[in-house]
From TrEMBL:
PANTHER family from the UniProt entry: TMV RESISTANCE PROTEIN N-LIKE
Organism expressing this protein natively: Quercus rubra
PROSITE patterns, A to Z: TIR
Protein name: TIR domain-containing protein
Signal peptide positions (record): none
Domain TIR: 41-204
Highest rank taxon of the organism: Eukaryota
Keyword hit for Cell division: no
Length: 204
């Protein structure tokens, strides 16, 4: 990968690999805890992403690779009707997932849907033990944390939207700040698709 780079955002150890065990299930992030030790988990992984940025490239690579390993992945159907509030089915899927992979891309914050999902994911991280694995997809973690660059542009748009309350804006900003502080994968460089494949290998 001479013309591209992949790194974790902080000096802490890289997140563990997600791989099936001998019984075709995911290995737990903790060696002492089995993925299926808690019956509430219905899905192994919930994917949170902005479709226009990553659905047809990185997200598809990751989804396919995980499914091929026998890992249950919940990914919303792009044809689902979008409402004012996050769909109850998706909220339930987040609550019932063991891991959430959050793919933060340049236009991610323009989507109120993505931000609502993210807020729910961070809530479940604290309440149900959901493990959050962020991917900084050609964005700087500091831009996510501080809402700068395209994230600032997105929030300027949201602030002008009468349908978005100040309370909602603050919830989104807090969620982005929190996820930006979680050690994850940071993709950057000039070549996109080969690095997609390399990062998929980190998960599987």
């Amino acid at each position: 990968m001479d013309s591209m780079a992949m790194s974790t955002q902080r000096s802490s150890p890289s997140p563990p690999s997600l791989s099936p065990s001998s019984s075709s299930s995911l290995s737990s992030l903790s060696s002492s805890t089995s993925l299926y030790s808690t019956p509430q988990w219905k899905h192994d992984v919930f994917l949170n992403f902005y479709g226009k940025d990553t659905r047809k490239n990185f997200t598809d690579h990751l989804y396919t690779a995980l499914k091929q390993r026998g890992i249950d992945v919940f990914r919303d159907d792009e044809k689902l009707k979008r409402g004012t509030f996050i769909d109850l089915e998706l909220m339930k899927a987040i609550r019932e997932s063991k891991y959430a992979i959050v793919i933060l891309s340049k236009n991610y914050a323009f989507s109120r849907w993505c931000l609502d999902e993210l807020a729910k994911i961070l809530q479940c991280m604290k309440q149900t033990g959901l493990t959050v694995l962020p991917v900084f997809y050609y964005v700087d973690p500091s831009a996510v944390q501080n809402q700068t660059e395209t994230f600032a542009e997105a929030f300027a748009k949201h602030e002008d939207d009468p349908k978005v309350s100040r309370e909602k804006l603050q919830i989104w900003k807090t969620a982005l700040k929190e996820v930006g502080n979680i050690s994850g994968w940071h993709l950057h460089g000039d070549v996109m698709h080969p690095i997609d494949i390399e990062l998929v290998k980190c998960f599987v």
